[in-house]
Amino acid sequence: MDGNRRFAKEFGLQPTDGHIKGKDKLEEMMEWCLELGIKILTVYAFSTENLERDPEEVRSLMKLFEDNFYKLGDDERIHKHKIKITVLGQMELLPDNVKNAIKYATDKTAGYDQYFYNIAIAYGSRQEIIQAIRRVAEKVKSGDLDISEIDEKVFSNFLYTADFPDPDLVLRTSGEERVSNFLLWQLAYAELYFADVYWPGFRKIDFLRAIRSYQLRRRRFGK
């Protein structure tokens, strides 16, 4: 979800205003996915690199995360559609107030299995892969895993996304055509779609175009 700050600058707003508008757009995206019956939505909300931004901006974002995880935990739509909330990332890097809010939302939706809403915070795919390698090495060292048993499926079980299939479609806004350390292992066979619009300005028609593009590609090439 790229382009919040550039969107704000273009309209003479503060970066925090751009992030708030981006949060509102994400709520719309969730509705669009429900309408189309898309069962799994994974969003890249905050990278490990984002922690190096201006401290005041980071504090504002953390407050936004705190407020909205509590809101998600109480959202009638979440409970009506039985949407399970999962957070992917290095939780230990987050402040306690955010961790507490995440726990509130994830605990309240832990038993749901109709839809899955994954939010990547303090996430970096290289770090995820390194952590998985360390965990595999520990298993081998302890004798719980033989080197000959290590394959793609086994390795995938040590990633944050172990409980989910690999993504079918990866969509990035703002016109940037790169994946920026997001799901590097998991997107090996995903279709990529880049939209030349900042995230807060992303419209439903833009989303439908992305879905249509995916459908045409899959129909043409198959899996």
- Poorly predicted regions are none
| Proportion of residues in extended strands | 5-15%
Q: In which order are the strands of the major sheet placed?
A: 1-3-2
Largest sheet: 3 strands, parallel
Taken in chain order, the helices and strands follow as HHEHHEHEHHEEH
Radius of gyration, taken over Cα atoms and rounded to an integer in Å: 18 Å
Basic shape: globular
Distance between the termini: 26 Å
Mean of residue pLDDT values: 95
Coarse structural class: alpha/beta
Number of helices, counting only DSSP H or I runs of 4 residues or more: 8
Helical content stands at 40-55%
How many β-strand runs?
Answer: 5
Description:
The chain has 223 residues and is α/β, with parallel strands linked by helices. It is 48% helix and 14% strand. The chain is built from 8 helices and 5 strands. It has a 3-stranded parallel beta sheet, with helices on both faces. It has a two-stranded parallel sheet with strand order 4-5. Strand 2, helix 5 and strand 3 form a beta-alpha-beta unit. It starts with a helix and ends with a helix. The model has no long low-confidence stretch (mean pLDDT 95).
Topology (elements, then pairings):
Elements: H1 4-10, H2 15-36, E1 40-47, H3 55-74, H4 76-80, E2 83-88, H5 96-108, E3 115-123, H6 125-142, H7 152-156, E4 169-172, E5 191-194, H8 204-221
Parallel strand pairs: 1-3, 2-3, 4-5
Helix pairs in contact: 1-2, 2-3, 3-5
Characteristics:
8 helices; two-stranded parallel sheet; 223 residues; alpha/beta; 5 strands
